[in-house]
Amino acid sequence: MIKNDKILATNAETATNLAVEAMLDEVVTWPKPGLVDPISNAGHTDMNVYTFINSSVTMMPYFKACWNLGNQFQESDLTELFRQLRPIGVTAEKTMFAATNGVNTHKGIVFILGIMVTALGYANQKKLNTVSDLINIEKQMTTGLVKNDLEKASTGLLTAGQKQFQQLGLTGIRGETEAGFPLVIEYGLPIYESAQLPQNERNLIALLAIIAHNYDSNLIKRAHNSDLVTQVQTDAQQIVTNYQETGRLDKDRLEKLCDKCATHNLSLGGSADLLILTIFLEKLIK
Fold it and tell me: Per residue in 177-203, pLDDT tens?
């Protein structure tokens, strides 16, 4: 359970700053299994921490546009708000790729935080001020997303998420979004709020709580092995359980998990995106 549900009043500038801060907070957190941090590229040969910093900064105009779109939207059907957001997101992706020389650093965040910042702008207009309100808005915005993007997808050129839906029945980030981000609301945010740890370790324990329950499309794509996916989830849960029992982050176990991800060239980019959302929401709650 989230301890405090009430969020701060925002404007476009505040929302943008908090979103970019959350992105930067995530990338400087270390050591992260299967993810770029200031010390390791974690098997990502085409990117490093500076790539992510450059990409994050390019998102500022996008988040301002998202907040303003939500704040000015007057129609009753919030799926129309999402429809209007999507071309703005496509433009933001192009800006990101230009800044990173074609490397996908934050495509998932363009999607996730784009929706949430738009929902935040709409909430401001309607004088709604809780995390529950935000989740309710974004769920209305994305109603039918799995059906429209996954169930109706042809067998032609498919994204990794569409392939995993057709082959494994996994709904990925679209399902997570349409369901109201349960991995964040039920796992990431509660432990993040309550953790009596230094900031870096708070970020890590929230990330691990998400990893333990997330069928991360990035992980599945690289693992090619359901047993390996389960191992990563189990290892993450053991660290979380140990923290809940001792109040300490087991750095030895974390290092072993990082080594396992490096050995198998695993990526946990989907979980990193949900950590960014967790951090963003906590900043709003403050």
Answer: 999 999 999 999 999 999 999 999 999
